[in-house]
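Trying the structure run again after the queue cleared.
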Amino acid sequence: MAKLPRTIAATGTTLGSWYIVNTNSAKQTSEGTFDAVQPTGNGEIAHFSWIKQVGNKVWAPFFGIKNNSFSTEYPDYAGIAVYSYPEMKYEKTIKDTRTSFIGRYFVDGLGVVENGDVYAFSSSVAVNSGT
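Done. Tokens:
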């Protein structure tokens, strides 16, 4: 589970929070913070559309947002932040510039098939400042 910022920090790192919850007991078992700008690599906030465990990793497709606007300077950018699990350390961003973000707002855009391959879809709806 993640709590994401919607504005860039005035100073220092723009932090988001992550939480691991035991689904059997419904109790939080660990928590931490992450740099919410690092995955985009372009200065915008990586606002996760979903998070999914894939093996010993967490994949978090995101859309880049400018402060509170939910628009982006990079509408042709699809990114998935990859974190180690359960440490939740950022490892890399899988990116592609042929389409916009993966999934939709709170819609899972990732599918994992039986052999462990992961497929993603984009609805290509990102906009640059409303255009």
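The first strand starts at residue 2 and ends at 3. Worth checking whether this holds up in the mutant runs.
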